[in-house]
Specification:
The protein is α+β, with helices and mostly antiparallel strands. It has 4 helices and 4 strands, in the order E-E-H-E-E-H-H-H. It folds into 2 domains: about 50 residues, no CATH class; about 60 residues. The relative contact order is 0.09.
């Protein structure tokens, strides 16, 4: 089956082309086409044999809809703030165990300084945490 079409830019009749060749042409839905046996020229979108040219090339994925409603958070406000804080700033490593092992193994006076500051890490962390909890 051979088709003719009217070029949209030049306005000239082009053809004849078979269905495979029409795929390579710039046929739009409003391009006028004709084939032997048709009484008159028609828009390409109205010809059943050419509808495949205007179908979408891909199917978009279906829209995801949540099946279950979100679960309400029924924890008391103070515990909710606790959860918020846990994600903000974790307690830093204090190196206490390493300092103790160093003092036992090496008998180094430097390890005593490490133990002293390692013990301060937890107390300072707790103090800062309490201040932030008051703000939240």
């Amino acid at each position: 089956m051979k088709f003719y079409y009217i070029d949209d830019i030049t306005g000239q009749q082009c053809g004849p082309f078979d269905l495979q060749q029409l795929r390579t042409k710039n046929i739009r839905p409003d391009t006028m086409v004709w084939r032997p046996g048709m009484p008159d020229w028609k828009k390409a979108e109205t010809v059943d044999d050419l509808k495949y040219l205007f179908e979408p090339k891909f199917q978009p994925p279906p829209i995801y809809e949540r099946q279950n409603p979100p679960i309400e958070d029924k924890t008391p406000p103070n515990e909710q703030n606790q959860d918020k804080w846990n994600g903000i700033l974790p307690m830093p490593k204090n190196w206490l165990i390493e300092s103790i092992v160093l003092s036992v193994v090496c008998c180094s006076p430097v390890s005593m300084v490490g133990i002293y500051y390692a013990l301060k890490v937890e107390t300072r962390y707790s103090a800062i945490r309490q201040k932030i909890m008051k703000v939240l």
